Fold this sequence. Notes:
Blueprint: E1 2-6, E2 16-19, E3 29-39, H1 41-48, E4 59-60, E5 65-72, E6 84-87, E7 97-101, E8 106-107, H2 114-134, E9 142-145, H3 151-162, E10 166-171, H4 174-182, E11 187-190, H5 195-203, E12 209-214, H6 220-225, E13 227-235, H7 248-254, E14 257-260, H8 270-285, E15 293-298, H9 302-311, E16 317-321
Parallel strand pairs: 9-10, 9-12, 10-11, 12-13, 13-14, 15-16
Antiparallel strand pairs: 1-2, 1-4, 3-5, 3-7, 3-16, 5-6, 6-8
Amino acid sequence: MKALSFHTFGGPEVLQYIDVPRPNLMPxxxxxxxxxxxxxxxxxxxxxxxxxxxxxxxxxLGYEAxxxxxxxxEGVQGITPGDRVAFADSPFANAELVSVPADHIIPLPPxxxxxxxxxxxxxxxTAQYLTADSxxxxxxxxxxxxxxxxxxxxxxxxxxxxxxxxxxxxxSSEEKRRQxxxxxxxxxxxxxxDWQKAVLEYCGPQRGVDVVYESVGTTLPESFAVTxxxxxxxxxxxxxxxxxxxxxxxxxxxxxxxxxxxxxxHLTSREERIRRANALFExxxxxxxxxxxxxxxxxxxxxDAHRLLESRQSTGKILLLPx
Length: 323
């Protein structure tokens, strides 16, 4: 079978589309023939060597895909060949065939396409736990979303609006600002401007936002500066680098909360994965959220897809499509 792989860490040029052995199907696993694969920044970090990779080269990237069940392993129940499925947290997805633990398999409703699932699951499930578990958004919540035009940022915006909240976004260009407004953000400010002043003026007498969804890292102190007394900052990423240390006395003095978020702590069983995914699919089916696919590349052209993602010029999901 074919896979997008690499032998050494480095830039997109290290990626190769090569023949690799067909995965061994172990008991409790499902063999999935991929139809659409989601590309994420985590794939860039792994290719660069920023994330630890187990095993020996050639390494195969990818954790998110949708496709058709080709074969089921011993002991697997409730899943049969021909089923339309997806997964958001199983490795080696940049291949024509992927062996996936059965408890990571998510059934696809007929109304959800392979491309929708591959574009939605990882970032959509992230936006879901951020708005339901890390900080429960409710009608009237005022939220500040960093990197609002990115994949998670766009889905966060739509979910917060669906829950009755107000979204203030931050982004880096006028084009991305327009994109975020088109996704439903109430106001969007540019990082290059005095965004702290703009956010506080927008909030008025409330003296700041209820919650900040912080994914930049280096802006953590500024996020606290625009959070109202008693508000919360949810830290779930560090796209621009490690965050500065936060003095717990500041939290005490202002009654503010700092909490962290990681998707893997919420996807604890197949039942939990399916429950959360079905809630996400329901939002899509009733039009409350929509996927934004910015580009599609053949899996064989994966290096070009990586270049586009690293350029930060994309404003939606990039998909890899096996031949």
